[in-house]
Amino acid sequence: MFVNAKATPKTVVEQGDTHSLLAATNISTTGCLSTLSNHEKKETPPAEVISHEIKDHMALLHKERKIADPEVIKKNRIKDLRRLLRKLPFERSSEDNKVIFKHLKAFPVLSSQTTTKELKEICSVVTLDVWKDDDYTVFGNTGFYIILKGSVVAQTDPWIRLKAKNEDKPTRNTTFLLERDLPELGVGDCFGCLEGIEGEEVNSQILTVKTNTLPCEFLKVSSNDYKRISQQLKEKDLMEKCNLVQPCESYKLWPRQSLLKLAELIVWAFFPENTVLVTEGVLCPFIGFIKSGECHVLRQVEVNHKLRNGKEEKRLKQVVMGKLTTSQSFGEISVLEEDTITCSIVTATDVTLGIITPEKISELDETTRSLLLQTNKKTFGNLSKDEIYTEYIEQELQREWYQFKQGVVVDVINSSGIQPGCGKWSKSGSQ
């Protein structure tokens, strides 16, 4: 039957040539045999198109170069701010505000006066002021300005008021400059103030400048907007601190007014894992309220330790007597009475605390101090030496039992030869 069959010629099929592939699969031998019948033909999916343009491959080999020239970076930053600020605040998206925040952090005159939270909120309310007339006066008492285009000439010295200086009456230090002494402020320079000067009119000549090179475009942070944002963040932070203190067992029955006074003294602090917060037998450095994380409470106990030569000696060991978690506090009695603390406290995880230092406690009134002293007690101060020693023995027995179990399991595995890479378990499946 197959005597007259001829060898099928070899067919070269290039990648991506679908028609050639179908023709090759349908080549039949002489006679009645065929590779695929008509109803058995299968569609071949199109192969991935490979580009032969070298530019498509060179882009994958080279990383994108970052601009290092500060002048080019500044120019691009100003360009982005002008583009985004043409939108009204309610038209900008969250991504637009993130870009504005990234650029405003590069202006130290502004970022040094605000916190990160304040600067993020400011990005959602900044506006673009455009001045197209020459020799017009811009009053710096209405807000903080960053020049994005054009230039201005300062009319007074100083022409900018930083928040950190806390000037009570800057009008006394204001000097009206002569025409020959007028400094010119260009793109990237700042003038005005974040906090409006109390007792002065909005159109007073304090911190004023005049437009010089037209048109002038300014990024403006209104003093009223900044005051509102700052007040809202302070209230939110105070409520967060108050909600941290109130769930603690000793403070559940405190009046609201006393809680607010105590919350005003709290400062946030972060401690990584395995940080010793307090050492037994010394003064506690602060009162701590745990916001997140967990701490271990340790007590010292004197035990007999057997040496290799058979002799015994006295040694101090640390025993974990308990733990402190969220909505718990420590250190009140030690700070108030200037007494040594009765335990050591070590962070078991990353911990965020609200802390009050002894210097801040001195700012409290006598009523709140008395209330703080009456409602608190020493942290784990009611434990006797017998209880600590009993806990130490239990923990040591548990540790020895665990080590014994681990040793037995390892011995069984090794004696049975179930050690990876040893004995019959080192042989591959083909052998």
What ranges have pLDDT less than 50 throughout 5 or more consecutive residues?
Answer: 1-42, 165-172
Which structural category fits the helices and strands?
Answer: alpha+beta
**Total strand segments:** 17
Helix content: 25-40%
Could you report the average pLDDT, rounded to the nearest whole number? 82
Give a short account of the largest sheet.
7 strands, mixed
Number of helices: 12
C-alpha termini separation: 44 Å
The rough form would be described as flat
Proportion of residues in β-strands: 15-25%
SSE string = HHHHHHEEEEEEEEEHHEEEEEEHEEHHH
Calculate Rg over CA atoms: 38 Å
Topology record:
Elements: H1 18-25, H2 54-61, H3 70-85, H4 94-104, H5 108-111, H6 116-122, E1 127-131, E2 137-139, E3 143-154, E4 156-157, E5 160-161, E6 175-176, E7 184-185, E8 190-193, E9 208-222, H7 223-245, H8 256-263, E10 267-271, E11 276-278, E12 287-292, E13 295-306, E14 312-324, E15 329-330, H9 332-337, E16 344-347, E17 351-356, H10 358-361, H11 366-374, H12 385-415
Parallel strand pairs: 5-8
Antiparallel strand pairs: 1-9, 2-9, 3-7, 3-8, 3-9, 4-6, 10-17, 11-16, 12-15, 12-17, 13-14, 13-16
Keywords:
431 residues; 17 strands; disordered N terminus; 31% helix; alpha+beta; 12 helices; 7-stranded mixed β-sheet; single chain; flat
What does this entry look like structurally?
The protein is an alpha+beta fold and 431 residues long. 31% of the residues lie in helices and 23% in strands. The strands form four sheets. Strands 1, 2, 3, 5, 7, 8 and 9 form a seven-stranded mixed sheet that branches. Strands 10-17-12-15 form a four-stranded antiparallel sheet. A hairpin with a 5-residue loop joins strand 13 (295-306) and strand 14. The longest helix is centred in the C-terminal third of the chain and has 31 residues, at 385-415. The two termini are 44 Å apart.
